[in-house]
Amino acid sequence: MLELSKITKVYTVGGVRQKVLKGIDLNFRESEFAAILGPSGSGKTTLLKLIAGLLVADNGHISGIKESADSGIIYCPQETDEAPENLYSVFWSDDNEVRKFFSMLKVNEEMISRYETLSGGEKKRIQIACALAENPSVLLLDEPTNHLDEATVKLISDTLKLFNGTGI
Ligand code: ADP
Ligand code: MG
């Protein structure tokens, strides 16, 4: 179980302290996807980055991230401007279990040869395939279905059913 206890995060902007998260307690079970909902600016990205270790909390602690999976924790940012670092190595992996995510998400060789010109939805499918290919114990998806059409959202949610770690 991934456990957040009394997490507080403060941003200081121009000398002014802004408390974005105030003493948050949350538990996430293994093999479950949890959704965090909230209006823009409510602190969703901040929370995910704290779990990912990309930000440090001002107070509280996070425990329970297993290091036993292939890679402990992966954060997929909302933006997909840059191709994932592992794209070529996992796409061309000789392991079926790694490659299967690309076929499920309908990613082919032609697409990965022109990443910059792909649509937002195509880039998102590649980002998620690359993340799943690493078999993380915790997968953090920041606004994974924003601005995507229904068919793409369905493709992504069907593929995520194969993931059996902690998904947020
Ligand atoms: P969400 O993802 O829910 O839209 P964020 O976590 O991105 O929310 O932001 C929460 C609040 O913290 C917002 O008011 C945002 O402007 C502010 N914020 C986010 N990052 C920083 C930062 N690096 N410095 C100062 N303020 C920030
Ligand atoms: Mg956000």
Which key features would you list for this structure?
3-stranded parallel sheet, binds adenosine-5'-diphosphate, 6 strands, 3-stranded antiparallel sheet, 31% helix, 6 helices, alpha/beta, 168 residues, globular, binds magnesium ion
Lay out the secondary structure.
Blueprint: E1 2-13, E2 16-28, H1 44-52, E3 59-63, E4 71-76, H2 87-91, H3 96-104, H4 109-112, H5 120-133, E5 136-141, H6 150-160, E6 166-167
Parallel strand pairs: 4-5, 5-6
Antiparallel strand pairs: 1-2, 1-3
Helix pairs in contact: 3-5
The structure holds adenosine-5'-diphosphate and magnesium ion.
Structure, described:
- It is globular, with a radius of gyration of 17 Å.
- The mean pLDDT is 94.
- The chain starts with a strand and ends with a strand.
- The longest helix is centred in the last third of the chain and has 14 residues, at 120-133.
- Helix content is 31%, strand content 26%.
- Strands 2-1-3 form a three-stranded antiparallel sheet, covered by helices on one side.
- The protein has helices at residues 44-52, 87-91, 96-104, 109-112, 120-133, 150-160; strands spanning 2-13, 16-28, 59-63, 71-76, 136-141, 166-167.
- Helix 3 (96-104) runs antiparallel to helix 5.
- The protein has 168 residues and is an alpha/beta fold.
- The structure holds adenosine-5'-diphosphate (ADP) and magnesium ion.
- Magnesium ion binds next to helix 1.
